[in-house]
Structures are given as structure tokens and as C-alpha cells.
Amino acid sequence: MANSRHLEILDEGVEAWNRWREENPDIKPDLSLANLSLANLSLANLNGAQLEGADLYNANLRNTALRNTDLRNTDLRNTGLSNADLRNADLRNADLSNANLKNAHFSGANLKGVKINEETKLNDKWLLVWEIVNQGADSRNLSLAQLEGADLSNAQLNGADLSLASLSNAQLSNANLSLAQLNGANLSNAQLNGADLSNADLSNAQLNGAQLNGADLSNAQLNGADLSLAQLRSAQLSGADLSNAQLCGAQLRSAQLSGTDLSNAQLCNADLSNANLEPAIFWIDRLNAADLNGATLTGACLEESKINRTINLENVICDYIYLKSGEWNIKTRKYDFSERRPADTDTNFKPGEFASLVRGNLRGLVSANINSPVNSQKLNQQQIQDLLEQLKNTIASTQLPEKHNLKLERDLQDIEAELIEAETDKQEVQHSLESITNRIKRLSSTQVAAKHLQEKVTPVLEQIAPWLGVAANHFF
């Protein structure tokens, strides 16, 4: 029931009403069930007002502000609403027969159950929105459609062709878009929470800033899509193709990424905490500053990964990984991976061991110079001497200032002398190597040759480090 005082102020005219609204911005006008037929409310500020069930038959609402207004079940027959601002208005089950809505703004407006007829004047864009919302658009050709800002919540768009469509800032929460063609579509900042996008084609789509929490994207094609800063908490992405996708800053907390292809995807600063990546393909060097706290990586494929120490790997669950990916197996609905680590199928990583490898010796692991993460600790004296000889030759072939070359040679001679002892003092070897690497690091800031030398000797030192009982990244 309408507030009698609010009706009295409205009866004083639009100018008095707007002045009262300006003086009382916190008051939400209640005009529900009011009889306002034939009323002249053009230019009135009715933003946020409660007008549910009101009679606005043949009223003048041209250029009227009706943003966020509750217009459910209102009688708007024959009403003039041209150029009215109806953004985010709730028009469910309103009767707009014979109404003039030309150039009215409907972004975010709910048109579910709205009644129109052939005499209703409505711009083509919003007529299309009305059709989708109230009649469904399964398998409909909507390619290149301009639907930005439209409220399509719960819409039936199964198998629809929305390729290259403009849906930025659209409301698509809980919509059925399974099998839809959305390749190249603009869905930036769209609301897709709880939407069904399973088996949809979203390749090269713009989804930056989109809300996809709890959405079903299983087996979706998202290769090359831009999902930067997207919200994907608890989203279902099993079997999805996210290769070459942009996911920097994306929120993937508790997302299901089993069997997902993340090869060459950019995941810098992404939140993957408690996500399930068992098994998935991704490159660890694309995870710069990503949060994997509590994520499950067992059986994941780290194809072409490189060392990266900026990732949060606390509480990561990982029994084993693979280094090579294969084809998608239709029968098992999994990728055929190879080159398991640890190589022995009866052996798994110890708790925290995988995280240690990523922070320290993943480069050596991926290069397959060792068959399991512990082999480098079992190198014999001859193998260490061979590695030292490799180190010596690399340094000797680098053009550095003579005085520095002499000091590096002296440290190498100390290591050689220690290795021929009956019982090698590994601590002395470590100190000499630290002397060498510290000198190279100092020189690399000014000498290009020293910088290249650091890159060349790092893999050798990473293999020697575990034999000394230190982390592989101890020296650089």
C-alpha cells in the first residue's frame, strides 16, 4: 500500500516532488498499488521507488528517472516511456501493451513475464532481449548481436550462435549456454555466476573481469580467451581447453581443473588455492606469483615448465607429476601423459618434496638429466668430478677480466684438491663454489659475459647442490 504522505507530495507536482527527493535522499518512496493513471510524471525522479502493482495506465513517463525502480505487476498500458531511464528496473509481469518505449534505457532491467503487443514501441535491441528472456533462444542464430548490459538471467540459450556478439556487462547468471557458440564474443564484466557453459566454444572470447563463480565450463573451448581478473571460484573447468588463455589475476579458488589444458596459459597472480588440477597440463613458469595454497596437483603435466620461485605452494598435494603430454583420450576422458616423476610408479613424492623441487631443482627435473628427484643426491665422486670439469671449461671459455679469471681458477683448484682426498669435505667444496658464484653475481651487474656465464653454469650447479645437501637454488 502506498505511503499517503508520499502521494500527497507527488500530487503537488513534479517540481515539488523532485525537490523533496533531493532533500531526502535516504527515503525510498512507496507508491505501491497507487492509482496514477493519466498522471503527468515526465522528468520525475522515481529512482528506487516502490511502484509494485501501481496503475500507470496512459500516464506520461517520458524522460522519467526509473532506475532501480520496482515496477512488478504494474499497469503500463498506453504509457509514454520514451527516453525513460529504466536501468536495473524490475519490470517482471508488467503490462506494456501499446506503450511507447522508444529510446528507453533498459540495461540490467528484468523483462521476465512482461506483456507486450504489436503496438508496443520498443527498440530492436530490447525487443530481442524480451524475446530471449520470455521465449528462449535455443539454437538461435544471434551472431554479432548487440546485447551489452542486457539482463538475460536464467535465459535458455542452449546451442545458440553468439559468435562475435557483444555481451559486455550483461547479466547471464544461471543461464543455459551449453554448446553455445561464443567464439570471439565480448563478455567482459558479464555476470555468469552459476551459468551452464559446458561444451561451449568461448575461444578468443573477451571475459576479462567476468563473474563466473560456480559456473559449469566443463569441456568448454577457452583457448586464447582473455579471463584476466575473472572470478571463477568453485567453477567447473574439467576437460576445458584453456591453452594460450590469459588468466592473470583470475580468482580460481576451489575450482575444478581436472584434465584441463592450461598449456601456455598466463596465470600470473592468479588464485588457485584449493583448486583441483589433477590431472591438468600447465607450464609452471606461467604461474608467476600465483597462489596454489592447498591445490591438488597429483598427476598434473608440467610440460615445458621452468623454474619459478614466486609461487605459493604451501600445503600443495602432489604425489607425482608428468613431463610430457599426449592426446586427449576419448574413452578415459583424460590426457595420455608420459615421463612420470618420480619415474618409479611405486614411488610418490614425500610431503613437501614437490614444492621443494619447484623452488629449487625443477629445471633439472624437467630437463630429464635425472630420472627421479633424489638421484642427484646419489652422484658418485667421478660424476661430481665430471660436472666440475664441465664447470671449469665453461668458465675458461668466458672472457672475463684477468684478475677475476685468476681468482675463479684458484677456487676451482681448491675444489679439485678436495675431491681427491679420501674423505671429501663437502663444506669446503660448498664454500669454494659460493666464492665462485658470488664473484659471478657481482660481475654480472656490469659484465654481459658474466651474466651469460651465470646462465650457463646454473644447470651444472643445480645438479651438484643436492650432493652437497643444499637446495638446488642455493648458489643462484
CATH architecture of the domain at 1-135: 3 Solenoid
Kindly identify the CATH topology of the domain at 1-135. Pectate Lyase C-like
Low-pLDDT windows of residues: 361-377
Distance between the termini: 75 Å
Main β-sheet: number of strands, strand sense, barrel status? 2 strands, parallel
Give the C-level CATH assignment of the domain at 1-135. Answer: Mainly Beta
Per DSSP E runs of 2 or more residues, the count of β-strands stands at: 6
Structural class: mainly alpha
CATH superfamily label of the domain at 1-135: E3 ubiquitin-protein ligase SopA
What share of the residues lie within helices? 10-25%
Strand fraction equals under 5%
- Number of separate helices: 9
Order of helices and strands: HHHEEEEEEHHHHHH
- Globally, the shape reads elongated
Would you write up a description of this structure?
This protein has 476 residues and is mainly α. Among the domains are: 1-135, 3 Solenoid (Pectate Lyase C-like), CATH 2.160.20; 377-468. The chain has 9 helices and 6 strands; from the N terminus they run αααββββββαααααα. A two-stranded parallel ribbon has the order 1-2. Strands 3-6 form a two-stranded antiparallel sheet. Strand 4 and strand 5 (334-335) form a beta hairpin. Helix 6 runs antiparallel to helix 9 (448-468) and helix 8 (426-444) packs antiparallel against helix 9 (448-468).
